Amino acid sequence: MANWTEASSKHLRSILSVDTWLPDTMPEYAQGFMYMLGSLTASSFVVLVISGIILAANGPASWSYNGAMRFVAATHFWGVQAFFFFMMLHLWRVFFTGAWRGGRGITWLLGAIAFIVAIPTAFTGFLINGDLYSQWNAVQAKDGLNALGLGWVNLTNSGQMFGMHVVVLPLTLLLLIGAHITRVRLKSVVPPYPVDDNQTGGSANGYKHI
Amino acid sequence: MATNTSDMVHDYRMVPEDFVKHLMSTLVIVVVVVLVAAALFSVPEAAPLTIQKDAIQNPVAFEAMATRDLNGQGRMADYGPPYNHGTGNLEFIFQKWVGDIHPLNVPYDFILHPLAMAASINPAITAPLHRFENASRTQQIAWANAYESALARGTTSTGTVVVPAGHYGPLPALMNDTLKLAESGLMSGALIRNPSVVTRFDNQNYLLFLEGTPMHTAATPLQLKGTQWGIIHPAVEGYPGAWWMTIPTWIYQWPFVASSPANDAIALSIGFVFWLFLALTPWIPLWNRVPQWLGVYRLIWKGYYHDYRNDTGPR
Description:
The complex is a heterodimer. By secondary structure, chain A is mainly alpha-helical. Chain A contains eight helices and one strand, in the order H-H-E-H-H-H-H-H-H. In chain A, helix 3 packs antiparallel against helix 5 and helix 6 runs antiparallel to helix 8. Chain B has two domains: about 170 residues, no CATH class; about 55 residues, no CATH class. The longest helix of chain B is centred in the N-terminal third of the chain and has 23 residues. Chain B is elongated and about 95 Å long. The chains are: A mainly alpha, B mainly alpha. Chain A: Pfam families: Cytochrom_B_N_2.
């Protein structure tokens, strides 16, 4: 009993540590725009949550007939584009740098799950917009869900889609992104591959000077 | 489990970092980009296809669609789970497991019940409605089939659809009453009734009513159909769509998928396998070493490698 509680305490202490969340140093290789892509994705999520709260507080369809709400809806729409744009660039960066090395596989997996959860999160948003795009996609996409035995998710029920888009999916996404970022902060970002001109492998310290 | 760290360098410096500045910078970048895009381009919204609009614009085609709801040829009439016991869109065994949790009796829910409500305002509807309801199913289908065929030569005259003389039973009267109900704008309300609650969250029957010819006619010029890579296209030209769905949309275009009656189940299943491959990358032998072989990382860490090349001693 004591072992796992002590281990949990230790783990929680490192998760909740200021040093984890507000580091004052970073590895020299983790600099520049390539290392802003994850934060740009998370920042897009923050913009989506804030604009989404304003939209939800004013109620569905308000954005279709109120000028101010339409502007908020526009920020929400472009926020989604920014979110996926930066997430895709981030995905390319972490792939090309083999970011799962050094025991970071779960961090990668959490990111991949966040990606697949983000798709229905965005899709349910399109469905509750109420225009022809919503109408067409609700009717078309239902066949796929029905075929896979997920017919209880009724895309033509805008109440269910509102709940999914405003509560269920963003909260799930928030937890996944939170867990993903927590692991990134705890384990830091992956160091570079060892490189040597003859490609014969690393030296004793894992790096061969070139 | 011990972590293998032989595939990474261990010799690097830690450099000062203002992490709050980093986070604020990315937030400001996104906020500015999003506000500028919102101000310049607003948000795409294509006017929906309402039942009223479809009935007014295409009265003959509207009656043909409504007639197919009565003879069982409509898109939803024989769909299958989760709406009814049909097999028309039964793609996969899983589909049966959920049962008919969104029950839909197409002739009754789409046509006969709305007409019964309208009959309380216009009693002239009652006689043809009762004649149809009291006929055998065979007779109903025969009338509907004959009327549907006749609509190929249907015309409109003073707001009513007219077809060549034939044995259609009460169909001409019922279908013109349905057309009038739709043109009035009251049909949508009749389709989403729920006597149990005063809220109207479930638009199922309203949205499914137009499935088939009307929705496809509206979607085709906008390139929204599945065969047109529609999932990733916006309904308003010039705006970005859901481009992150490109891979599943591409799978839908594969000939053996596109021609399969279970295209949705197959495309989504293959798409899931693609995602699984991505998600399990760290644990897939060889695939997890591809980035090292590709060497793109040399560009990403160009500065780090350059610094080391010019470095003279350990750090």
